[in-house]
Amino acid sequence: MAPIASQLESLLFISGDPLSITKIRRVLGDAISDTEIVAAIKELQAGYAKRGIRVLLKDGMAQMVSSPENAPLVASLVKSHMAEELTPAALETLAAICYREPIAKADIDELRGVNSIFSLRSLLMRGLIEKTKEHGVPHYRTTLDFLKKLGIESVHDLPNYDELSKHS
After folding, report:
1. Is residue 112 situated within a structural domain?
2. CB under 8 Å to 76, separation ≥6 — which residues?
3. How far apart are CA 168 and CA 161, in angstroms?
4. Which Gene3D superfamilies has this protein been placed in (predicted)?
5. Which one of 6, 44, 135, 141 has the fewest CB atoms closer than 10 angstroms to its CB?
6. What distance in Å separates the CA atoms of residue 145 and residue 82, rounded to the nearest whole number?
């Protein structure tokens, strides 16, 4: 596998969201051309052709997704995952969002000291948080469903909200 393809694979895996070719080029280095990036995407597509993961490229956006053949299996896992309790990492991530919303992923990661992407995915899948844009940057906030599950009208009703929500 070419080094660019390997690097791109890591970016797509960690991101979880579609990445534009422009953003990929910025991260990998502007010396890399769009043509080289598309070639790396095609290399990944060929490598994943008969596997459980696919790499999609549409309208200049690339994303890793599960293969359509495995949709029932993936749906079953998601359903069972939703029935499980939140992990300590997910609870910590949710607390950061509750008391600092709207908050960018980078700020959550800084507060926690670790990458929060997997906790964020879990919370998004459960409908407890949603992704919004603030000044063109993705941010996370709690959902109405989250408030309903807690039986509160606002995050301001959370314990010690005024004290803990202060941005330092």
Report:
1. yes
2. none
3. 14
4. Winged helix-like DNA-binding domain superfamily/Winged helix DNA-binding domain (1.10.10.10)
5. 135
6. 14
* CA distance linking residue 134 with residue 106, whole number of Å: 13
Q: pLDDT (tens digit, 9 = 90+) per residue, 6-59?
A: 999 999 998 878 899 999 999 998 789 999 999 999 999 999 999 999 999 999
Question: Phi and psi at residue 62, in whole multiples of 5°?
Answer: -120, 145
User: Do 91 and 138 lie in a common domain?
Assistant: yes
**Strands of the sheet with 129-134, listed across from one edge:** 103-104, 137-142, 129-134
Element (H, E) at 76: helix 71-83
Positive or negative CA dihedral for 144, 150, 151, 153? negative
Q: How confident is the model at residue 77 (pLDDT cuts 50, 70, 90)?
A: confident
- pTM listed for this prediction: 0.58
15: CATH: 1.10.10.10
Query: What separation, in Å, do the N-terminal and C-terminal C-alpha atoms of the chain show?
Result: 45
If asked whether residues 56 and 102 sit together in one domain, one would say no
**Rounded Cα distance, 114 and 96, in Å:** 13
Q: Per the structure block, which two tokens stand in for 10?
A: 């890591």
**Domain residues for 61?**
3-69
Q: State how many domains the chain has.
A: 2
d(CA 157, CA 24): 41
